[in-house]
């Protein structure tokens, strides 16, 4: 699991980090040790594995107004049957980053997260996690640039094109397990 993923499970907002810095200053002051607020912020950042407060502030999710419902990230789970083929396709061909991988113990199926430019996908070798042939619709910008990037890789098994449809410009890729990702640059931004 990446440091950023671990960080998000421990720290929900910058307000929480600021609260911790204030508590640190108060606790130290009670022991006769006075430190500037900025130093306290840097010490809290170090506790979360960040070099300093500015790095931590860039990694923590934005504070959102309180509301009854808030969704942050959608991560479709795609079934895979061969880890090497899956990573070759998602990381090698599509240009995603392998964020983390998990196994309950050696020899058991892989469960992994890949991401690129805000798109997060989960890949699973576990029976019951996703169905082969799943279709995922991804609204995006820059479809022509992405298409050119993929075509430049000269993959003999995948040469996607861009098609103009009533709802936008569309490019579909099919992974080695029959899962379809439909990238679409929608008309009117929506």
TrEMBL record:
Gene3D superfamilies (alphabetical): 2,3-Dihydroxybiphenyl 1,2-Dioxygenase, domain 1 (3.10.180.10)
Keyword flag Transit peptide: no
Domain of life, per lineage: Bacteria
A Pfam family annotated for this UniProt entry: Glyoxalase_7
Domain VOC: 72-186
InterPro entries, sorted: Bleomycin-R, Glyas_Bleomycin-R_OHBP_Dase, VOC_core
Keywords assigned by UniProt, alphabetized: Antibiotic resistance
Family per record: Belongs to the bleomycin resistance protein family.
Record's protein name: Bleomycin resistance protein
Organism lineage: Bacteria, Pseudomonadati, Pseudomonadota, Alphaproteobacteria, Hyphomicrobiales
